[in-house]
Design goal:
The complex is a heterotrimer of chains A (389), B (294) and C (435). Helix content of chain A is 45%, strand content 20%. With 389 residues, chain A is α/β, with parallel strands linked by helices. Chain B folds into two domains: 195 residues, no CATH class; 73 residues. In chain B, strands 1-4 form a two-stranded antiparallel ribbon. In chain B, helix 1 packs antiparallel against helix 11, helix 2 crosses helix 9 and helix 6 packs antiparallel against helix 9. The longest helix of chain B is centred in the N-terminal third of the chain and has 34 residues. Helices cover 70% and strands 2% of the residues of chain C. The chains are: A alpha/beta (389), B mainly alpha (294), C mainly alpha (435). Chains in contact: A-B, A-C, B-C. The interface between A and B is large, with 40 and 35 residues.
Chain lengths: 389, 294, 435
């Protein structure tokens, strides 16, 4: 009989939960923006930084005027756990919360996984820093405001080749669409230039990079290309120092984070990354967001303990304003109208440059920032703007 | 010389990680020897010791923190035993294993909550982190210290098991649970001591392991835990020297596998080894014949 | 007054409730708009039925045959991949296998059948790859079973767990890229269009499992679970039956894997970890080891809690309660604690080892008013008995203390007592290593 009591208790709980769910109907003058970002897992740190940009943007512009009516903007944040299998239900959860547009995600894999869900629901989505081409390739609902991996891979390959590197060791993570994709495009471009590559992959949950660093040394490479998650990055930098790697480490946009500068500080390593934004590019934004973070200890924690800006935070900020512009252009908060308005949208005055979309829904961007980590101060120093040609 | 030149970094890394697996494996093998239970939560206790260190070091000096971390692991381990394993001691074998899996799930999720899902960086311990060169290879000091420390600890442990009263009681209990309790051995005390030793060593292992691979996230205990368990099976479960030997074999083999380019299979390889051992010699290298006692 | 329903009524009730459930799913799927918060109900039903199937298949092995296997995630992975690989439309191959020159399989079963027999082929094209996936997984399970099933209890568990991890690495292997797309996601394959599809497929499979359990084979499985030696003595071929159970369980795990692939619309090997197997095992435990209906209830509860009901715990307010403690990850902590409570205090799970029966169901509801009325008395008597037990315990403690004090006194005054043999003497008898 005991188990029946338990069962009925659980059922009761379920009922109340139903009521709780049913209660959250939509308000007339609120417009909801869904935030589809990882808060845990491999990309948790980056996802949180990206959300910070959106929250900051929301704090300076909490309302939007559509037609003659003023709406309050509310961010609905759902954690996709950096996990492709959790991403689908997280996306469904978001869609069921009656949002008008979705922003995110940080990693490419979760966005690819969720694309179909958004597609089925007719929900417009704006990718913030997911650079893999597959995100928007076959999905009419997915747009994005950053550059793509074929572009980024070429930029990185050009940079490496121009600086006299001829043999590259490329490390990606098994099952991570972002790193596998970027390495692939880098290899393609690098081989076209006449370079040579050694490619390896490490499995999930690996924290021992000793052998990979040793492999790169054994193969006599000139550059260590590993555009992996920041979690792995910190471990790689650590091992590179321990084994005296003796070659620069090159990576993509994920590495533009204070996790990396923190890990590299005081170590004898050279880290070069390509990214979307360089701190100081828009002093007003820098100042504003730093002041905002300092007021909120949670924000500082989410940013990794200090107020150093990551490019994804700036992109998150931009994504929020692109969404607002989309609402204005659509003149409605209905996802279907927003979707119609997006392709012809042009947004200016953003932190990371103007945004307009091409046919597949990708932003037209032609330049990336190259940065090097200054290991004595633990900050990024700007090297140059590099384009694909 | 050319061979050594190429492979020394891998072998060094293998020995270091092997020593760290060994310290975890001892906990598995002792608990299994006595309770016939795969303590799935052991890897997570290891992870938690690392995590606690991250938080303690912010306010306390290093040596105090290390002592507290070991204490914490011991308390956590014995508490888990008391709450989750002891009430189920008479229940079917499967229930207690499920309980272990449940505890592991809880520990991981709690760590996920505390850390917010982010990887924490292990504090740098200057002594262990210092770079040293051995011939052609450069590595961290911890790589050199680990095998010696491991062997010292194992030696002490073997002495304890062979030459003290509690060690004798442990051997008796692992031979025959019920009879030894009839002979007046306080079973609960023996089990508690087993957990104390196992968790203490895991905590020391965590200091060494995370000094070498400095990122801790809620899942970082899972893989080392499984590998350490495989090491325990490899050496013959219930046997301490066997577990240590198994751990070194697995550590070195794993790194050589990575060095030869089969990186995709670096984790799976451990399991291939496990299955071969189970097929060919299910009792492991030093195991006793009669393993299916219960 | 116990009510005994006759078989006709029971059958009618079963049919009606299944029909009602299907209608609910069908109507819900078509009526509930995607923006409604009730949409999650359909999602939970879809995912829940997929996990109900895999939990039932695991229960067949663990609960009914007594084989502690932890390989379920590996078999699901294989089922998912097999399904996905053979149903990617040829037009999408270049996009999916972008790093592998479009892959080597240039056709999809769905398309081939569609071109031959039209619309019927399309639907047939959904079923055939599912069955095919199941069969392929079953064959692999057969091969794995030959060596593995000789092992006992936890050794079997750890070996199957190892095989699952090996399978995962195998499917991520770049050399197999033209078939499996390496470690990258497979997508664009054909999926179902209605939530009723996974429910029906899972329902059929679970019915088959139930029928199997009620056959001679099922009774042989249970005999093996209860006592291997006795079962063998009664003429049951142990290995053959274990292998059969293992293969059938894997077959259904493969099918549920292919359903999961359809549900997710993209699939990669990464999430099929040991953790996933643990989750399935926990579903089985919550439902009750040895009860298929328990597994079904457990699966729906587990999925609903983790994907829907408890999500509010992550975002700051839940059921009107809000607290600073509720931040990302809190849901999982609460959930894990709930599971531990079930494991420790209700180790039989929701259903124990009994199946759902209308008789019990009806009688339970009928006895509720009486039970609620009696509840205070029951509670009181329970409290009284607890108090008695406590007092007895403290009495015993006091007595022990007294005795000890007495004996100490006697010892001190030199009276010889019964002395047990020293422990060391006893141990040496058993100590083989000591020689």
């Amino acid at each position: 009989m005991k188990k029946f009591t338990v069962l009925s208790l659980i059922l009761l709980l379920a009922m109340t939960a139903f009521v709780g769910c049913g209660g959250s109907g939509s308000d007339e003058d609120t417009i909801r923006i869904g935030v589809f970002e990882p808060a845990s897992g491999d990309n948790g740190a980056g996802g949180k930084q990206e959300v910070l940009g959106m929250q900051y943007a929301n704090s300076i512009q909490p309302t939007v005027e559509i037609g003659d009516k003023e709406y309050n903007v509310e961010l609905v944040i759902v954690d996709n756990e950096s996990d492709n299998s959790k991403a689908v239900t997280a996306a469904q959860n978001l869609v069921s919360k009656d949002v008008s547009i979705v922003l995110g995600s940080y990693g490419s894999g979760v966005s690819i996984a969720a694309a179909d869900t958004f597609s089925e629901a007719g929900m417009p989505a704006i990718g913030v820093s997911c650079t893999n081409p597959q995100v928007t390739a076959d999905c009419d609902e997915y747009f994005r405001i950053c550059f793509l991996d074929p572009f980024q891979g070429t930029v990185l390959a050009n940079y490496a080749y121009e600086n006299g590197m001829r043999k590259a060791y490329c490390l990606s993570k098994l099952g991570d669409d972002y790193s596998v994709g970027l390495v692939n495009y880098f290899v393609e471009a690098f081989k076209n230039l006449g370079g040579e590559v050694v490619q390896e992959q490490f499995p999930d949950k690996n924290s021992d990079f000793t052998s990979y660093v040793a492999n790169a040394k054994k193969a006599g490479c000139d550059v260590f290309f590993s555009p992996v998650s920041t979690e792995a990055a910190a471990l790689i930098i650590d091992q590179a120092e321990a084994q005296a790697l003796g070659m620069p480490i090159l990576a993509g946009d994920t590495w533009d984070s204070n996790v990396i500068t923190g890990a590299a500080k005081g170590k004898n390593v050279e880290v070069v990354v390509t990214t979307f934004y360089q701190e100081g590019g828009n002093p007003e934004f820098d100042k504003g967001i730093k002041a905002w973070m300092e007021e909120d200890s949670d924000a500082i924690t989410n940013n990794g303990g200090n107020t150093d800006l990551a490019a994804v935070t700036a992109l998150g900020h931009d994504a929020y304003f692109v969404a607002l512009e989309a609402f204005k252009a659509a003149g409605s908060k209905d996802p279907a109208d927003v979707l119609k308005a997006l392709p012809s949208l042009k947004v200016t005055g953003l932190v990371c440059g103007d945004v307009s979309f091409n046919k597949t829904g990708d932003a037209n961007k032609s330049e990336a920032f190259v940065k090097r980590c200054d290991t004595t101060t633990g900050t990024w120093e700007f090297v140059k703007k590099q384009s694909a040609n | 010389m050319g061979f050594l030149h190429t492979w020394l970094p891998y072998i060094l890394a293998g020995i270091a990680v092997g020593g760290q697996y060994a310290l975890i494996a001892i906990g598995y093998t002792m608990v299994y020897g006595i309770l016939r239970l795969i303590n799935f939560a052991h890897g997570d206790i290891f992870m938690w010791s690392g995590l606690i260190m991250v938080y303690l070091i912010t306010t306390l000096p290093l040596w105090v923190s290390i002592v507290l971390v070991i204490l914490f692991a011991i308390i956590l381990g014995t508490t888990i035993e008391k709450i989750a394993y002891r009430p189920l001691r008479t229940a079917p074998r499967m229930s207690i294993m499920i309980s272990a899996i449940g505890v592991s799930y809880l520990l991981q999720n709690f760590a996920l909550y505390i850390t917010g899902g982010l990887t924490k960086t292990y504090p740098a311990i200057a002594l262990l982190q210092r770079a040293v060169s051995i011939g052609p290879a450069t590595t961290k000091m911890v790589t050199i210290i680990t095998p010696f420390l491991t062997i010292l600890l194992v030696f002490l442990l073997v002495m304890l098991i062979q030459h003290t009263k509690i060690g004798m009681a442990m051997r008796a209990v692992s031979r025959d649970f019920e009879t030894s309790s009839l002979m007046g051995i306080d079973i609960n005390r023996v089990i508690t001591v087993t957990f104390v030793i196992g968790c203490g060593l895991a905590a020391i292992g965590s200091v060494l392991f995370f000094s070498n691979y400095t990122g801790i996230n809620p899942m970082s205990g899972a893989m080392p835990g499984l590998k350490a368990f495989v090491a325990a099976v490899f050496g013959g479960i219930g046997s301490v020297p066997g577990a240590v030997l198994g751990a070194f074999v697995i550590g070195i083999a794993e790194n050589i596998v990575k060095g030869t380019g089969w990186t995709t299979f670096s984790d799976a390889f451990t399991f291939v080894l496990l299955i071969i051992i189970l097929m060919v010699k299910p009792t492991g290298l030093f195991g006793e014949k009669d393993i299916d006692k219960v | 007054m116990k009510i005994q329903l006759n078989n006709k009524i029971k059958a009618a009730l079963t049919t009606i409730s299944i029909a009602l459930f299907l209608i609910l799913v069908f109507v819900g799927d078509n009526v509930i708009s995607s923006g409604s918060s009730w949409r999650m109900l359909i999602t939970v039903i879809e995912k829940g039925s997929i996990f109900a199937l895999v939990a039932a298949s695991m229960n067949l092995l663990n609960g009914f045959t007594g084989l502690f296997s932890l390989g379920q995630a590996g078999f699901m992975l294989m089922g998912a991949y097999t399904y996905a690989i053979f149903t990617i439309p040829s037009a999408s191959h270049d996009a999916v296998y972008q790093y592998f020159g479009g892959g080597i399989i240039k056709w999809s079963i769905v398309e081939v059948l569609e071109s031959k027999i039209g619309v019927v082929g399309h639907y047939l094209g959904l079923f055939i790859p599912i069955i095919f996936a199941g069969i392929l997984v079953a064959i692999v399970a057969y091969l794995i079973g030959i060596p593995v099933l000789r092992l006992k209890s936890d050794y079997l568990a750890i070996a199957t767990l190892g095989f699952a991890e090996i399978l995962r690495a195998f499917f991520q292997w770049n050399t197999l890229g033209p078939v499996t797309n390496g470690s990258n996601v497979l997508r664009k394959y054909t999926t179902y269009h209605s939530a009723i599809f996974p429910v029906v497929i899972a329902g059929i499979c679970i019915t088959i499992i139930l029928l199997l359990l009620n056959s001679t084979y099922g009774r042989a499985f249970k005999a093996i679970r209860d006592d291997e030696i006795a079962a063998e003595a009664m003429g049951i071929n142990l290995f053959k039956h274990k292998e059969l159970s293992f293969v059938i369980s894997s077959f259904f795990a493969g099918i549920s894997g292919s359903l999961l692939a359809m549900f997710q619309s993209t699939i990669s090997a990464t999430p099929f970890t040991t953790q996933m197997t643990y989750e399935i095992l926990l579903i089985v435990v919550i439902g009750g080891i040895g009860s298929i209906s328990g597994s079904i209830i457990g699966a729906f509860l587990f999925i609903a809690c983790s994907e829907w009901w408890l999500r509010g715990l992550d975002s700051g307010s839940w059921l009107g309660i809000s607290s600073d403690l509720m931040r990302s990850g809190f849901r999982k902590v609460i959930f894990a604690i709930m599971i531990m409570l079930v494991v420790l205090f209700y180790s039989k799970g929701i259903m124990g080892d009994k199946e759902f029966s209308w008789n019990r169901f009806v009688n339970w509801w009928l006895t509720r008013p009486q039970a609620i009325k009696n509840w205070p008395n029951k509670l009181k008597s329970k409290l009284v008995s607890k108090k008695k037990a406590r007092m007895a315990k403290s009495d015993a403690k006091a007595r022990l203390k007294q005795e000890k004090a007495d004996s100490d006194y006697k010892k001190a005054s030199g009276t010889p007592l019964f002395t047990p043999l020293p422990i060391s003497d006893q141990v040496i008898v058993f100590d083989k290593e000591g020689k």
